[in-house]
Amino acid sequence: MNSESIREYATELLGRKNLSEDACELRFSFPAGFSFTPGQFVRFESHGLKRDYSITTAPNDKGIELCVRDTGTGHFSSVLASAEIGTEFRFSGPHGYFVYRPSTRPVVFVATGTGVAPFVSMTRSGISGYIFLHGVKHTPDLYYENLFRNAARIYVPCVSRSSDDAESDLFQGKVTDYLGTVLERRPYDFYLCGKREMIRDVTFLVDDYFPGARIYTEVFY
Ligand SMILES: Cc1cc2nc3c(=O)[nH]c(=O)nc-3n(C[C@H](O)[C@H](O)[C@H](O)COP(=O)(O)OP(=O)(O)OC[C@H]3O[C@@H](n4cnc5c(N)ncnc54)[C@H](O)[C@@H]3O)c2cc1C
User: Fold this and answer.
1) Which atom of ligand 1 is the closest one to the Cα of 56?
2) Bridge partner list, 219
3) Element (H or E) spanning 151, and its range?
4) Which of 95, 124, 152 is a domain's end point?
5) What is the value of pTM for the model shown?
6) CA dist., res. 216 & res. 204, Å (int)
7) Residues 85-124: pLDDT tens digits?
8) Do 78 and 145 reside in the same domain of the chain?
């Protein structure tokens, strides 16, 4: 995880699977000599632009997968989302320190949107038994739901826009609503990934309601 091991690699797009209307999972070849720790990200470069993407696969997978949302207003995510299979890309990595740190405190993973990505890698690497909160606007954005339902001790899909799915266990509201009103108040290790505003709001809330907790963060956007 130190900067000495960061290098540049060439990789080839091998496959694409839709996760929702505007998000997809992209599979790339695993370059020789590359290694990473679950939770880390790679920095892709194309047309002079650089963008970061968390790896969703486990280190022993033969490929590298990313979960990419085509933002519609940006450049890079559309390039990735529409690239032909076989397209070559360059990336540098591994980057980042958002990795799982075992401790005696219970663990709460909190993600918004594609912020699930590092938790997918951690889960595929065998980490389980955590509380998982996924904040999305609409139910189709609950990427990797089955993976998390199987691995988490408690899985809480937090859907902020109204849903007709009255029979399901959806929490209607934001992750901050759940943390502020439902989660038992005790010290946890919180891992937060996704939108800047969510990370700011949850950090304030943890300071107020969960004294003694630790917070690890990864801001996507
Ligand atoms: C450490 C790190 C890891 C990241 N990992 C991922 C990842 O695994 N998957 C992923 O899709 N993105 C990830 N991102 C965001 C990614 O780097 C790009 O910013 C994103 O793909 C948009 O790039 P763009 O050039 O298309 O648009 P930009 O012009 O960079 O952004 C356009 C708009 O989209 C918003 N935006 C950026 N990313 C997202 C997103 N993921 N969901 C919703 N809105 C967004 C921006 O705030 C901006 O308003 C990560 C960012 C960081 C810093």
Assistant:
1) 8
2) 194
3) helix 145-151
4) 95
5) 0.96
6) 13
7) 999 999 999 999 999 999 999 999 999 999 999 999 999 9
8) no
Segment 203-221, tens digit of pLDDT: 999 999 999 999 999 999 9
Cβ neighbors of 23 (< 8 A, separation 6 or more) are 67, 68, 69, 70, 114, 141, 143
Q: Which amino acid residue places its CA nearest to atom 7 of ligand 1?
A: 53
Q: Do 77 and 51 contact (CB within 8 A), yes or no?
A: yes
Asked, for residue 101, whether it belongs to a domain, the answer is: no
Residue 174 sits in which domain range? 107-219
Find the length of the chain.
221
Q: How far is CA 125 from CA 104, 130, 133, in A?
A: 19, 14, 19
Minimum CA distance residue for ligand 1 atom 50: 220
> Helix or strand or coil: residue 169?
coil
Ligand 1 binding pocket includes 189 (Cβ within 6 Å): no
Q: What share of the chain is helix, strand, coil (3-state, %, to 5)?
A: 25, 35, 40
Same domain, 91 and 112: no
CA distance 208 to 48: 43
Instruction: Give tens-digit pLDDT for 165-190.
Output: 655 789 999 999 999 999 999 999 99
205 and 135 together in one domain: yes
